[in-house]
Design a protein that fits this description.
Radius of gyration: 18 Å
Strand order of the largest sheet: 1-2
Helix content: over 70%
Structural class: mainly alpha
Shape: flat
Order of helices and strands: EEHHHHHH
Mean pLDDT: 91
Low-confidence stretches: 1-8
Largest sheet: 2 strands, antiparallel
Number of domains: 2
Distance between the termini: 30 Å
Number of helices: 6
Number of strands: 2
Strand content: under 5%
Length: about 190
């Protein structure tokens, strides 16, 4: 019975919660626009945010299909949320200064390290741990370059960098643990 409730790696309630939560997040600014002038989204804003949510949800679904282990799924969840937040912050207000500040392109480079790394290792747990460690390093290097080249404000950028590096390293640790669990189960 439980197996029949499973849909593409996620059980039906988890899938409904994932996609339903994304729909609620997309609906929130639309509702806010009806109550305050502070929120003023265009159709393009909704398309971009909806696309980001769809990619994040699809990534979670792919991770659930790739591995049923809790550590693997948690690592993927942390990585997806961190990537989503980094992209959202960079598009909305800019991680470094204004959204069009040239140093913000470095944040896109951090996400590129993650995406290319995940593609190269094809989602294998130990490879994902390495890809996320490389992403954490890229995050630190992006912040250092922004501070050195563009004299970015050190404290806000340092705080954001610490948050994202912590998230990348937590995800790397979870993937490493998933690889150990898989190796232990093979024995």
């Amino acid at each position: 019975m439980a197996e029949s409730m499973k849909c593409g790696g996620l059980r039906a309630p988890a899938r409904a919660l994932l996609w339903g939560g994304a729909a609620c997040l997309l609906l929130a600014p639309w509702l806010a626009m009806h109550f305050t002038a502070e929120v003023n989204w265009t159709a393009l804003d909704f398309v971009v945010f909806g696309s980001m949510l769809a990619v994040a949800c699809a990534s979670c679904e792919l991770a659930a299909r790739a591995n049923s282990g809790l550590a693997y799924r948690a690592g993927a969840g942390v990585a997806v949320v961190a990537a989503f937040l980094l992209l959202w912050a960079n598009l909305a207000v800019g991680v470094v200064g204004e959204p069009n500040h040239p140093a913000n392109l470095l944040q896109d480079g951090v996400l590129a390290v993650l995406i290319v790394g995940a593609a190269i290792v094809r989602g294998r747990p130990l490879g994902m741990a390495a890809a996320l460690a490389a992403t954490a390093l890229a995050q630190v290097l992006a912040a250092a370059a922004a501070m050195a080249v563009w004299s970015a404000a050190p404290w806000p950028l340092a705080a954001l960098t610490a948050f994202f590096v912590s998230a990348w390293l937590l995800a790397a640790w979870l993937f490493h643990r998933a690889a150990r669990n898989r190796a232990g189960a093979a024995l």
